[in-house]
Design a protein that fits this description.
The complex is a heterodimer.
Chain A (H helix, E strand, L loop, with lengths): L1 H10 L3 H14 L6 H8 L3 H17 L4 E6 L2 E6 L4 H8 L9 H13 L2 E2 H8 L4 H9 L3 E6 L7 E5 L1 H6 L20
Antiparallel strand pairs in A: 1-2, 3-5, 4-5
Helix pairs in contact in A: 2-4, 6-8
Chain B lengths: L1 H5 L10 E7 L2 E6 L5 H11 L9 H17 L6 H18 L17 H27 L17 E2 L2 H18 L11 H15 L1 E3 H7 L3 H17 L2 E5 L6 E5 L5
Antiparallel strand pairs in B: 1-2, 3-5, 4-6, 5-6
The chains are: A alpha+beta, B alpha+beta.
Chain lengths: 187, 260
């Protein structure tokens, strides 16, 4: 009883306090922090938490902070803005990591849009063997196996991982532009 | 034949041709950015400024075959996919030469022999576009940095131990020995240099030494003292690290990675 009473006591935070505690939680989280986790810790409903997140995000934007609060890979994250990447790289002595080859990117795009998809299906679209690209993508943890397809030979199916969303700056898969939009782009 | 090869209008020769060894028995010729027959076909169609829905099959097939010949002139086994596509193109070309049989009922629509290829090209083109989109997204994303990892005990197991931790551990063991060893007279006791040499060789062999276990092995107080002094000496002279993974945990002596 007392515990429950304490909880209801806690719930009465002002929106300002909620924004502050959410900022602290997102800050300490190593991975993008899911709204679900915030709900559990703060015992607030989803709408209240999302409103607070939006408010915090807007605050960063308004004061033209070097940081931003953004939604990525199914959670929220505090990160730097693109404008300062050169200075940050100098400080961290970090080089942009090796890019994927065009072949790997093509394979990845087929997997992203067609998932779950099997290796022969990828080959049909690309017109080339894609085994080495798939290995690269698995090594980089951008794709994961999604079980076997119940067809002849029970081939393995692949789909994109959470790391894929994070590396490509996507909230979720629905944020990918429609594949039909690319029809004329290449011309 | 050879003259024809030389007449090739492609600028492949200016683009550096690369032979990529993919595995012990698989070589791949990489010229420019062509990642397969569909990619090459798209390039040829665009270069001819042809309409993708009305591909001049005869012309494109000729160009395509010339490319294959060029690959062969490099004495490279042409990837099977390119050969399959060449066969497909030739098949389409010959089917287009055949007179269209007028269908009797006049209802059945005659399919363009190129249709299947066009569909594949269009689909491939979409994913090629999507790949370019992913490339630019990744580029932007690489300019954004999340917070660095927090150094907590959990994700940083190797908390350095100090000499005092070492001393304290040593004291514990010596106390234990006090109880165990009542009286023992040993003649052939080790010298300090022998102990150091022994410890160094063990360290080299195993890369690391658990000091607690090693101290426990010592048979006499004298040896224990020698062992302790040896550790101090090794820490001072050699490039080793003292590591304690948890507070009050065992202390490990580890060879430091050699500077490259």
């Amino acid at each position: 009883m007392t515990e429950a009473a304490a909880k209801t006591e806690e719930v009465r935070r002002s929106i300002g306090e909620l924004v502050a505690v959410i900022e602290a939680l997102v800050y300490v989280s190593d991975e993008p922090l899911a709204v679900r986790a915030l709900i559990q810790i703060l015992q607030e409903d989803k709408d209240t938490i999302e409103a607070a997140l939006e408010k915090l995000s807007a605050e960063y934007d308004e004061r033209e902070s070097g940081l931003q609060l953004r939604e990525i890979g199914g959670g929220w994250q505090i990160a730097t803005r693109t404008e300062h990447h050169e200075e940050i790289r100098e400080l961290l002595k970090a080089q942009p990591s090796a890019k994927l080859s065009l072949a790997s990117l093509e394979t990845l795009s087929v997997i992203a849009y067609k998932q779950p998809v099997t290796v022969p299906e990828i080959m049909d679209i690309r017109g080339v063997q894609s085994a080495s690209s798939i290995k690269t993508l698995l090594d980089k943890r951008l794709i994961t196996s999604k079980g076997r397809k119940e067809t002849v030979g029970r081939p393995m199916q692949y789909g994109t991982s959470r790391d894929f969303l994070i590396q490509f700056g996507l909230k979720d898969l629905s944020e990918l532009p429609s594949v039909e939009d690319f029809e004329d782009l290449v011309q | 034949m050879e003259q024809q090869t030389e007449q090739i209008k492609f600028d492949f020769d200016t683009v550096e041709a690369q032979i990529v060894r993919k595995s012990s028995d698989q070589f791949m010729l990489h010229m420019g950015e062509f990642d397969g027959p569909l990619d090459l076909l798209l390039y040829l169609i665009r270069r001819e400024e042809a309409n993708i829905f009305d591909i001049p099959v005869a012309k494109i097939t000729d160009e395509y075959l010339r490319y294959i010949k060029l690959m062969k002139s490099y004495d490279i086994a042409v990837a099977a996919e390119f050969i399959v596509m060449a066969a497909t193109l030739i098949e389409i070309k010959s089917r287009m030469l055949l007179p269209v049989e007028p269908s009797l009922d006049g209802e059945e629509e005659i399919e363009d022999p190129r249709q299947e290829l066009v569909d594949r090209l269009l689909e491939y083109q979409q994913y090629k576009g999507a790949a370019e989109m992913l490339w630019s997204r990744a580029t932007v994303e690489q300019a954004v940095f999340p917070r660095g990892r927090i150094e907590s005990d959990e994700n940083n197991l190797e908390v350095s131990a100090t000499i005092f931790d070492l001393f304290e551990k040593f004291q514990q063991i010596i106390d234990r020995h006090k109880e165990e060893i009542k009286m023992e007279i040993k003649r052939d006791e080790m010298t300090l240099s022998e102990m150091i040499a022994d410890m160094k060789s063990r360290l080299l062999k195993n890369k690391e030494l658990n000091l607690m276990e090693m101290f426990a092995e010592m048979k006499s107080r004298h040896e224990l003292v020698l062992a302790f002094i040896s550790v101090l000496e090794i820490v001072k002279v050699e490039s080793v690290r003292l590591i304690q993974e948890r507070t009050f945990g065992d202390i490990i002596l580890r060879l430091a990675p050699q500077p490259a």
